[in-house]
TrEMBL record:
It comes from Moniliophthora roreri. Residues 14-27 have a biased composition (Basic and acidic residues). Residues 101-169 form the Retrotransposon gag domain. This is Retrotransposon gag domain-containing protein. Residues 1-38 are annotated as: Disordered. Signal peptide: none annotated.
Length: 229
């Protein structure tokens, strides 16, 4: 017979595990944005998925779970493809043979089929065209992130990528980096770091200057009023 104290001890042993399981089930990080069938979004969508899987191992600990998450996120003009793939996972009449086929397919194989269906035919050529056109619009860190994503598919060496990155920077930032005392950066990572560093410094100076600006006009107006009086 189990004593009351023994029951309490058993209950206390079980409770922490339940709490831990709930913690594991909670989503970490944002769920990837839905994929609407736009070819240019394919690469980023798959990267976001891999990041989500890494942050949520319990939710993505089987190939089947990963496939189901993809199917839940594809929208827009992907409906026909989604229907076909859903029928493979959940066949009519619960066909055991079809289920076996779907279960055998690995996540890597499924992901490659997804790429074949939705990624541009010539990814390299498209990435090479994009890398020549991308320009820094406001923040250097945003430009670096966008450049990195595109650079992955270009197959260009670091020498070429450094040239394209430099040309895409704002002219003032480009000059500041190239004219620094230590000379021009020799690696792509160094270009990234310096661009972000100098851009942040510039924005901080401008923000501090802006804080002081409103004081000057008020003082000037007051002096003018006193002079006229």
């Amino acid at each position: 017979m189990t004593t009351p104290s023994g029951s309490a001890a058993a209950a206390s042993d079980v409770k922490p595990k339940t709490i831990d399981d709930k913690k594991d089930e909670a989503s970490k990080g944002p769920t990837p944005d839905p994929f609407l069938g736009k070819q240019s979004d394919t690469h980023c969508f798959l990267l976001d998925l891999e990041l989500y899987f890494a942050m949520n191992p319990v939710k993505a600990n089987t190939d089947e779970k990963k496939k189901m998450l993809v199917l839940s996120l594809v929208k827009g003009n992907t409906s026909e493809w989604k229907q076909r793939e859903t029928m493979k996972l959940f066949p009519k009449d619960d066909d055991p043979e079809e289920k076996k086929k779907a279960a055998k397919e690995t996540w890597s194989s499924f992901k490659q089929r997804f790429r074949n269906e939705w990624q541009p035919v010539n990814v390299v050529r498209e990435a090479q065209a994009k890398i020549k056109q991308i320009r820094m619009m406001d923040r250097a860190d945003e430009y670096v992130n966008q450049f990195r994503l595109i650079a992955m598919d270009t197959k260009y060496d670091n020498e070429a990528l450094m040239r394209f990155f430099r040309e895409g920077l704002l002219k003032s930032l480009q000059n500041k980096i190239m004219l620094r005392m230590d000379g021009e950066p020799e690696t792509l990572d160094e270009w990234y770091k310096l661009a972000i560093k100098y851009d942040n410094q510039y924005k901080l100076v401008m923000a501090n200057r802006k804080k002081r600006e409103p004081i000057k006009p008020k003082i000037a107006r007051k002096e003018k009023e006193v002079t006229v009086g």
